[in-house]
Every structure is written in C-alpha cells, then in structure tokens.
Specification:
The protein is mainly α. It is built from 11 helices and no strands. α5 (69-81) packs across α6. The two termini are 31 Å apart. Residues 16-76 form the HTH tetR-type domain.
Length: 218
C-alpha cells in the first residue's frame, strides 16, 4: 500500500542483530579494559564471528566504539529538516535538546554509566580525535542544511556561524551534564540545571539568531 514503510526482511534483521551484538560486546570490552587494550581479534572471538565479519560491519576500531556516529552527525540537521512551520533552526535544535533532557537520553549525557564511556574517550588520543571529527562533521552537516533551507549564497558566513553556535552550545551542555553525573550529582538535578542553562542561552542570544531559518507557514 502506498505510504507504508517496507517491513524488515529476515536477511536485514539478521544483519542488524549481528551488528548490534558485535557492537554491544565490543563496548563492554572497551569500557572494562580500555580502548587501546582490546583487539579486533578478541572482539571477533567474543562475538563468535570472524575478524573479516567485524571489519565488514565496522571498517575501523573507532567505528566500533562510535557505532552511532552517523546518527549523531545528522541529528541537529534532521531536527531542522523536520521542523514545524513557524519554527526556526534554533527552535528545532533547542527543542530537540530539551526533549533529550526530559527523556534522560544518551544525547543529553544523562544515561546511567555514560561517564565510563566518556572516560574511555578521554583516555584515548585516537578516540578524542574521532570525537572532534564527529563534532566537526555535525557542524558541517548542519551548515549544509541551513544553506539549503535558506538559499544562502556559497560565500554567506551566516549558516556556518549559526551552526557552529548551536552545535558548540550542545557540546558544552552535554559535557557539563556528563561531568556532573560522574561527580555524583543526582540526574534530576543535572536535568534541571541543563534546562536552566538552555533558558539562559536563549535569553542571552539575539532575536536575529533565534529567528534564523524560520520555516514559512506558521
């Protein structure tokens, strides 16, 4: 029937389940022993697959650790693409951030045990470099989306400035939440503090920024 999403076939389901199993096992090993100490061969053995199978799903060990990298990279841009009529880019992304905080989501840095994940990153120069690359690509993706949405000229710096400020604030808020949870601050307090910082950010930001790329029809 038109408009109905295709159901996942048996082959696709098995591939997805294999990918998730390899990723889950690898993450547990990384958190327990550290990223550098774990080899692909050890992950393959623990997951009961061949080394080639691991590489088929994850071309590098960093891809195994950041298995949600593509989703992370596209997340702010997706919020802008799917925003309601009358909503600006800032409305969409700050709204997405508020929802992540309310959901105590991994994207708000409030998932239990997430501080261990971040500690693993801080202890590995390779992972730190990959995280910086992901953040850079996130800004690039959002910049491209804002250019497309506004029809900005190639040399117009405004899309990149807006994207950089939104992604940068998101990164700072996320990092602050992770550190607070790691220090033992109750998640409810961290969530309330994060929401207050979001409100403060909006108060301090100009109307030109907050209204940028408002979708017509609202």
């Amino acid at each position: 029937m038109a408009g109905t999403a295709p159901t996942e076939g048996r082959r696709e389901r098995k591939k997805r389940e294999t990918r998730e199993r390899i990723s889950d096992i690898a993450t547990g090993m990384f958190l327990e022993r550290g990223f550098e100490a774990v080899t692909i061969a050890e992950i393959a053995e623990a997951a009961d697959v061949s080394v080639n199978t691991v590489y088929n799903y994850f071309p590098t060990k960093e891809d195994l650790f950041f298995d949600r990298a593509e989703e992370m990279t596209d997340r702010p841009a997706k919020a802008v693409r799917e925003r309601e009529p009358g909503w600006s880019a800032a409305d969409a992304i700050l709204g997405q951030m508020r929802q992540a905080i309310r959901d105590r989501s991994i994207y708000a840095g409030m998932m239990e045990g997430y501080d261990r994940f971040m500690r693993c990153i801080r202890e590995s120069p390779v992972l730190l470099a990959r995280l910086m690359l992901i953040q850079h690509r996130t800004t690039e993706r959002l910049t491209e989306t804002l250019r497309a949405e506004t029809g900005a000229a190639p040399g117009d710096p405004l899309p990149e400035l807006v994207a950089s400020q939104l992604v940068g604030f998101s990164n700072v808020l996320f990092r602050s939440a992770v550190l607070s949870v790691a220090d033992g601050t109750p998640v409810e307090e961290v969530a309330a503090d994060s929401l207050a910082k979001l409100d403060a950010f909006e108060t301090l930001t100009t109307d030109v920024f907050l209204n940028y790329a408002t979708r017509a029809g609202g």
